[in-house]
Amino acid sequence: MNAARRHIVITVHGIRTFGKWQKRLKILLEQAEPDIIVLNYDYGFFSALAFLFPFLRWWETLRFRRTLKKILDDNPNALVDLVGHSFGTHLIAWSIKRLSARQPIKINSVILAGSVLSPRFHWNELISASIVTRVLNECGTKDFIVIMGQLFAFTGVAGYLGFRGVESNQFQNNWHPFGHSGYFQRDGIFYDDFMATRWLPLLTREMMPVQIDTRPDSTAFGVWVFVLPKLRPLTLLMYVWIFWGIFLWYRDVKITHDANLARSLASDSEELARKSPQALSESLRLAIRSVQTSHTPEGIIALRRAIELFPVVTASIRFQGAPTLVRFSASGKYLAMVWDQTIHIWSVEQHRDIQQLKLEAPVKAMRWIGSPVNWQLLVYTDNAELWSIGPSAVNRYRVSAPRAQSVAIGEKQGRPLLALVLDGFRVQFRSVQPDAILREVSHEQPTTVAFRDDGRAAATIGYDGLVSIWALDKSSLNVEPITHDEPISVVVFSHDGSEIAFGDNFGSVVIRDLKSGQERRMGPHQSAITSLSFSPNGDWLVSGSGDGTARLWDCHSGVEISRMTDEDVVNDVSFNDDGSQIAVSGRNLVRIWNFPTTLPLDPPGIVTALAISEDKGTVYIGDSYGNIDSVKLWPRPLVSSLIREVGQKLAVRALWSNNGVLRAAFEDGSIKSWSGNKLMTSQPVLDNAGYTNMTFSLDGKLLAAGDWDGSIRFVHTNGTAGPSLPLSGQNAIEALFFVGQGSTLAAEGNAVLDVWDISNAQRIGEWKIPSGHALTFTPNGDQLLIGKIDGASLWSQGQMSPNDRFDCYGSPTVALFFQDESYVVLGSGNKTERRVIVTPFNESTLIREGCKRLQVYDPHPIDICP
User: Fold this and answer.
1) By C-alpha distance, which of 21, 82, 16 is closest to 44?
2) Most buried of 147, 207, 242, 278, CB within 10 angstroms?
3) For 671-693, what is each residue's pLDDT tens digit?
4) 361, 435, 359: which is closest to 394 by C-alpha?
5) Is the distance from CB of 744 to CB of 738 less than 8 angstroms?
6) Which of these, 366, 374, 364, lies nearest to 326 by C-alpha position?
7) Per-residue pLDDT tens over the stretch 174-193
């Protein structure tokens, strides 16, 4: 062996062993060559059960690859030999193959014993490329462990059949008459002669051993050799049958359990209906749960009986034309109806009109306010008049407002409020006493508006399928606009304000939880939704439609409970305030539906990339599930979905936007580009390695990608290779971003920040910093922002010391500055929500006390929840 070069031998043991042969081989090598360096790689006791899972194999291979890379990087001129047994041959072969694809490496000799690699592994390619000088593969003709691996663990049988390829003095297969451990022991006793006579000459003097072939020369063995490599499909089929059997067993157990539970719920439903007529609502709910759990005959019978006992029409009020609006009073004793510019107040108990009022203009909106005793009926007409109709007096107020397309009446602390949908995409919120404008907002193509019961918020909808929630007092609402794929015709708040329901022109009804953002869809009707009304406790929803039906829904399950059919169209629906009745106005009838009072019931990303448009008006947000949202910031945040990668779940690692083009890099190394909402290009530019961080240069033409092994790859977006950096590769890249105009790159790993000039591959500096998720320099490169669990801090780039700190809601995972440093964008997230905060960047305005969300004095930040 050449004494001028350091000689390193790395040994790797197999599964279900601690590799005692490694220590004995080390003694033999050190006796033969005192200056040799023998490194025994030990990954612990790797069980046969763990060997069955490809992910665990991949993880151990990755760990060994990092170790091998460090050894080769630290000893660039060394003569390196590798010796592996069983699973160790898998680690060695795939580490060499993956590592050689990323950097030039040189391995002298590779010795494999009892290999679990495929016979098709291309050693000849590695030898011809001068990556490996020689390969010695030792096989056992009685190695049934390798055969079992082929049959049950999807591994190869190169330790039994040998590798395919042209044999030479650089590549040799040998077959010996023993089993999987015969290279190191015989009859249970340690045996070193095999290693001493066959491996030592190769490792110390580069002498290939004498080739041995003890395979039987028989037809039966030849057939076996032919069939064995082709048994893998049978292995797959065997596992399919095993898992299919487990699935069928689990399904049978679950079906039996669900059927028993359903029968129990059905029995409880019928017993409750018999015992208490006042509990018909809960009886129906139990029947619904029974049928949802399992379709048993008992559950279906219970559901039918509950529905038969349920809503009953107790009154029908006939008109000469179509009544338009219906509203129950707070006590439920009175029902207000509108027909032909006439207000009818109907006594539910007496079944007759107790008051009528003929108005001068068509009625636009109607609402009851006040107590059950001192009630008032507010009516707004098309000539901008508000009528207050009480038990003993009728008052009229003139409202100094232009003519409105639609109107809603609200109440706040006993005082009436008005919401007017005006021309020019305006919605105006007004008080009546005094007659004043409270707020005016913009909405694209607004059609309808609805108040929350407390009058502190309102919702506007339009033909653009957007629902916007507006605050009408000083409280802050963290509810972003809701997008829907069809034009919306009606919207209503639940009585506690926690949910909204909206219906569209195609008959679908959606209930949305305003806190969680979860939606439940019901329907559809056969025509546009005309009206919606929640029960007081939020358990039920009634919908009216142009298809002539009013349908009653269970809000929690989305099950349709019952329906009422009219001859033409349902104009309006209304629950009374105790939930016991529903009023439905149709073609020429108003029907009152009896409805028992209900009982309450207990009710699957993280921001990973940001980009800002060149006009600073749009923020693009990518998350860990491959979704990209486009958020228009001004004059009010408007969130729209650009891409939803359903089922793909590839994290968006980098975003770039300019001149109307959006470019996104995903963790699999692919890049997609859009112009507007149109996908222009989609191409893979990097191998599929699960990159941890990526970033685009300022001009969007260069992509830098950081990996777990500390390497950084550069590639132009057209697919050509970019520059390279002489990285040590000791730490995984946890943050990566370009600084300034794009010739400087900063990379962070293990709380060490390296800054490089990529134009000449020179390191500018290296600093120890706090470990954080979100890292970015200000565009001028003066300050570094570090996002951590408890907020974010600003560091001076010159001294790398903290000079400012501020808190934000959640743990920032990614950050980005506007190019003029006027604003900073912080993205965060956890298992339950995603959040992006856009706030002015000005140190003097930052509040440094702890707070749940980032606050500034002026202007207020924009809080976005995509």
Assistant:
1) 16
2) 147
3) 888 887 778 888 887 876 667 78
4) 359
5) yes
6) 366
7) 999 998 888 988 877 888 89
